Amino acid sequence: MRQIEHIVEPGRLLLSWQAKSERLRMFVAELIRSGDDADLVYLKESEDFSKAQSLGFKKYEGFDTEKEVHENVLGSFMKRLPPRSRGDFDRFLKALRIKSDAEISDFALLGYSGAKLPDDDFTIIHPFENASPPFELMLPVQGYQHYQEQLPLTSLSEDMEAGFEAEPDNQYDPEAIKIIINDVKVGYVSRGLTSSFHKWMQAGLVISAYVERINGTQQQKPAIYLYVSVEVE
Prior knowledge:
Helices cover 17% and strands 29% of the residues. It contains five helices and eleven strands, in the order βββαβαααβββββαββ. The strands form two sheets. A six-stranded antiparallel β-sheet has the order 6-11-10-7-8-9. The longest helix is centred in the last third of the chain and has 12 residues, at 191-202.
C-alpha cells in the first residue's frame, strides 16, 4: 500500500455540487483559509453558480446565498468527517493513504478526503495550486461508471499504471484531461484539478499514477482511485 509522504496544505478549497441529472460537477463556492478557520465564499458571478441554480442548487445547508461571504465555517464543514477522537480514526486516514502520525490540518483534511456524504450532492476538492514537488495525492477517476464497459472492474487490479492526456476537443470542457488505463479511456481528472495538471504537464514534471483502490461493484457505484505522485525529473 502506497502512502502520501508530503502533505500540501491548501489556502483554498473548492466546493462542488452535482445535479443528479448531470455528469459535470459545478463549483458553487470556495473555502478560503483564514488563520485556524475558514470562510465560505459563494461564486455568485460564475457560470457554474448560475447553471447550478438553474438545475436546483439552493445553498449549502446553513449558509444562505443572499450573503456572499460566511466567516468561520470550518466547524460546520468538519461535521462531514469523523472526529479525530474517534477510536477508528486511523482507519479513516489509512483509506486516504495518509499516515496516522502525519501533521495535517483540519482544513487540509477536508481537501484530501473530499468530505463526500452519501445523502447530499457536495464534494470538496483540493486544487493543489502552488504545490511544490515532490508530493502525492489520491485521485478519484471521475465518470468511470460511463466507461466501465470498456474496462470493467473485473479487468482492473491494484498497481495497474494509469496515464493522463489532454482532450481539447471535449464537447463539455476543452480543458478536460482523460485518464487512460490499458490504452482505454476510463474517465477524467476532476475539473477542480485540471488547471494544476495542465501546469504540471507543461512544466515537464514527472506524473506517475497507479490504481490504488477499487470500490463498489459492476452494478453498484463502481469507483477507481489512483495514487498519483508528482516529481521533478
